[in-house]
TrEMBL record:
Chief site of localization: cytoplasm
Keywords for the protein's UniProt record, in alphabetical order: ATP-binding, Cytoplasm, Kinase, Nucleotide-binding, Transferase
GO molecular function list: ATP binding; dCMP kinase activity
Binding site for ATP: G10, P11, A12, S13, S14, G15, K16, S17, T18
Family: Belongs to the cytidylate kinase family. Type 1 subfamily.
Entries under SUPFAM superfamilies matching the protein: P-loop containing nucleoside triphosphate hydrolases
Catalyzed reactions: dCMP + ATP = dCDP + ADP; CMP + ATP = CDP + ADP
Protein name (database record): Cytidylate kinase
Gene3D superfamilies listed in its UniProt record: P-loop containing nucleotide triphosphate hydrolases
CDD domains per UniProt: CMPK (cd02020)
Gene Ontology CC: cytosol
Length: 220
């Protein structure tokens, strides 16, 4: 079996990680959530009260980012500390675009992502996977959905976790993050020329997974 690389890019809350995790399980691939890595860098900036990329990088070098499978799914660690939940708080979410726009942070994390993906057999989700991190990935998906639908999905998810959320606020936060991620100078969110565009508005998770797996199986 060929060890392929699959890149899944797209705007915030378009369902990338949900579908990538299922495809990883079904096709026995490693799953790498690159957004989690930028979220960890943001957490470090907040806790160390710094905007200096080198301070953030030094901290992560001393306390590396790692992933492990826990009872509730993939868990994220910063050194020994389990940061799975704290990197999903609103504070981190609303600050992440600023940290992820720093060129030094990007080159540091991209090098790490490329190292992990080197052997293939991987599906990665993010914003610049098809354009920058894995330009030679065998399959590239650009997953989009309307702002309304993305906000509603996130709203339902938050409610089910008991997190109080305002739908209109969520819509404007998602739109603001999309704008920042797609207009930044370094590696903006952009569809790679050879990526397949998939609009998941009105589609089920199973539909999106089937779409990706059908294409992936032709390449394996
Ligand atoms: O995917 P997720 O929403 O967790 O990503 C959080 C943030 O990390 C994005 O809004 C973006 O600013 C940044 N990111 C990035 N490049 C990636 C993945 C995420 O800039 N490959």
């Amino acid at each position: 079996m060929k060890k392929i690389q699959i890149a899944v890019d797209g705007p915030a809350s378009s369902g990338k990680s949900t579908v990538a995790k299922i495809v990883a399980r079904d096709l026995d691939l490693i799953y790498l959530d690159t957004g989690a890595m930028y979220r960890v860098a943001t957490l470090v900036a907040m806790q160390e009260q710094t905007q200096d990329p080198q301070v953030i990088i030094n901290f992560i070098e001393e306390n590396p980012i790692s992933f492990a499978n826990g009872p509730k799914g993939q868990e994220v660690f910063l050194g020994e500390r389990n940061v799975t939940d704290v990197i999903r708080t609103n504070e981190v979410t609303n600050a992440v675009s600023k940290i992820s726009a720093m060129p030094e942070i990007r080159s540091f994390l991209v090098a790490e992502q490329q190292r992990i993906a080197k052997e293939g057999g991987i599906i990665m989700d993010g914003r610049d996977i098809g354009t920058v991190v894995l330009p030679n990935a065998e399959l590239k998906i650009f997953l989009v959905a309307s702002v309304e639908e993305r906000a509603e999905r996130r709203y339902k998810e938050n409610r089910s976790k008991g997190i109080p959320t305002d739908l209109e606020r969520l819509k404007s936060e998602i739109a603001a993050r999309d704008h920042k991620d797609s207009t930044r100078k370094v590696s903006p969110l952009k569809q790679a020329e050879d990526a397949v565009l998939l609009d998941s508005t009105g589609k089920s998770i199973a539909d999106v997974v089937a779409f990706i797996e059908t294409r992936a199986k032709r390449l394996i």
